[in-house]
Amino acid sequence: MRLSTLYIALVFAPTLAFAAAKPCVQAGEASTLINKDVCVTAHVYDVVELSNGTRFLDVCPPATPDDACRFTIVSLRQDRDEVGELRQYRDMDVNIRGIVQPMHGRAGMVLSHARQFKGGPPKFRPNPLLARGFSAEDERAPIGDPNLRSQGAHRAFMNTRDQETRPAK
Question: Could you state, in order of their start, the residue ranges of all structural domains in the chain?
Answer without folding.
Answer: 27-125
